[in-house]
Amino acid sequence: MTLPVEKRDQLIAGPYTRLLAEHETAVASVYEVLANLLKDSASFWRGLAEEELDHRRLIEAIDEKFHDGEWAFKRPTVITKGIAEAIEWLEAKSRDVESNGISMRDALQAALEIEVGMIERKFFEVIAADTPEMKKVVSTLAAYTEDHAKRLQAEAARLKWKITGSRRVRPT
Fold it and tell me: What pLDDT, on the 0 to 100 scale, is given for residue 164?
């Protein structure tokens, strides 16, 4: 029996969007760990963490649109295995930072790697965007991620004099 395209899209979209939502939560967790450890820049990291949770909510709203049949799912270039591996890496990074500490320079570098990786792999291009509303959501997610990358680069430039020594902050 062949599934209707809409039903097939719903079955594919569900696990993918759930993984994307989990990925956003894992990124937020890394940023929250950094906020707790790097107290001088806690508000910077906490702000990024909160925005990652906003991204999660946006992805959950997209998932609802797929399941309601309002939007069509487009098979993404990033396979679910890649997202699952990224989540594992993020969780391991959080544990490592919590155990061993991190310098601000290394934190900025790791965060930039996370954000640029999502941009390069086009994590959010999962909507067959053929209406203005869909196109806006796709571009919004991409813009958020690009904004994070730019803010991380700006923070690194702003703090350059402070992070050149890359002093490691250890958990207390």
Answer: 45
